[in-house]
Design goal:
- This protein is α+β, with helices and mostly antiparallel strands.
- Helix content is about 15%, strand content about 30%.
- The protein has 2 helices and 22 strands.
- Strands 5-4-3-22 form a 4-stranded antiparallel β-sheet, with no helix packed on it. Strands 6-7-8-9 form a 4-stranded antiparallel β-sheet, covered by helices on one side. It has a 4-stranded antiparallel β-sheet with strand order 10-11-12-13, with no helix packed on it.
- Strand 10 and strand 11 form a beta hairpin.
- The termini are far apart.
Length: about 325
Amino acid sequence: MAIFNGRRRGRSASRIAVAAIAAALVATTAGTASADPAPSGQGAADSARQHVTPKAKDKGQQRSAPYASGFGATNESFDLMAVDGDGFLYNYPPNGTGGFGERWYNTHGWESISEATQYDNNKDGRADGFYAKSLDGHLIYKNYVGGTRDLGAGWNTYNRVFTPGDLGGAPNDDLLARDKGGVLWLYTANADGSFTNPVKLGAGWGAMTKIAGRGDMNGDGKADIIAVDNSGTGWLYPGTGNWAAPFGNRVKLGAGWNTYNNLVGIGDLDNDGQADLVGRDASGGLWFYAGTGTTNGAPFKDRVKVGTGWNGMRLMF
C-alpha cells in the first residue's frame, strides 16, 4: 500500500510540474504574440501610407503641378513600391530621369501579402491606393483617402493580378487576373474599388512568364500590356478601350526579355509624357526602358541601368 501511494504521489507531482511548465510556456508565447502580432493582409494594407512626391523638374523648369507626374500622354507617375524579405514596405520616388531618389520607409507586416498593384481612379497622375492579394487568398482594396476593404476570398486561384490602367473605357482602373490554368480574366472596376463579373479573355497565357505594364505604351491613348513568353520573347498587346476585347493583335518586341525576373510599369518616370517600364535582372540590377509612344513596334528606347541590389526585394509594384 505504501509503494502504491508513493507512485501515486510521484505521478501527481509530475503532472503538476508538467502543467506548471506548460502554463508558463503558454503565458510566454501569449506575451510575445500580444507584444508583436503579425498583421493580417488587411491590417498590413491598412497601415500603408501615401507618399506624395515633391514637385519634379522638367528640362530645368519647375512643374506647376503639385505632384511629380508626366502630365503628358500618360499623365501618370507613381512611386515604385517594394517589399523586402522581412516584410518592410518602401517607396522609391522617381527622380525625373528614369531612376529613383532616396527610398522612403512606409510600413511593415507585408510578409502576409503575395501581390500588389497601384491604381489611379481620379486620373490626377498619382496613385490613389492599391489592390493587395494576401497569402490566404483575400483581395484587399486600399484607398488612401477612403480606407481599406476586404473584397473577398478565392483570389489564390490566380497567379498574376495587376492593373495596367483603364482597359474597359470607364474612368476606373481595371484588373487583369491570370488563373492557374493559363486563362486571362478582366475585372472591370467600379468607383468604390469593387468589380463587375469577370470577362474571360482567352487561354494560353500560362506560356507567359511575366505580364506587366502601366498606361499607354504605343501612343494611341489606350492602356497596353507587355508579356514575355517562355522563350524570352517580349510582346506588346495594344489596348483597344473595349472591355469585351481589350487587346488588339500583339506586336513582337524581340528576344532576350527572360533576362528579367520582374517587370514593373508605374507610368512616366522621366517626365516626357510617355509610359515607361523597369526590369530587374537576376543579379539585382534595375534597368529603365524609356517609352517612345510610337506604334511601329519599338515602344522603348535602349535600356539604361539605374540601380543595383534590388534582388533583396520580394515584391515590386
